[in-house]
Amino acid sequence: MDDISGEQTHRSWWVAREAVAETAGAGRNREIRLVNGIRAPVARDSVDRLRRSGFLPG
To answer: Model's pTM, two decimal places?
Structure first.
């Protein structure tokens, strides 16, 4: 996994950056829809970190 860019979005979820199709939700209630249709949760306490890293839009 060292060569693949991604982030841990929830305690048991790691998402590759290139697998993200879109993000949904508002404020701290977010989820990520992947290119294969799976919806990955985003932990509320991870939203700010994921925004700072550019993984989630501001």
So the answer is: 0.85
- pLDDT, residue 27, reads 78
Cα dihedral across residues 56, 43, 48, 15: positive or negative: negative
Query: Do 12 and 24 touch, CB atoms closer than 8 A?
Result: no
- Strand-pair category, 39-42 with 6-10: unpaired
| Nearest-angstrom CA–CA distance, 52 and 21 | 19
Q: What is the DSSP letter of 54?
A: T
Per-10-residue mean pLDDT, the chain, length 58: 90 96 88 97 94 89
State the Cα angle at 23 between 20 and 25, rounded to 5°.
160
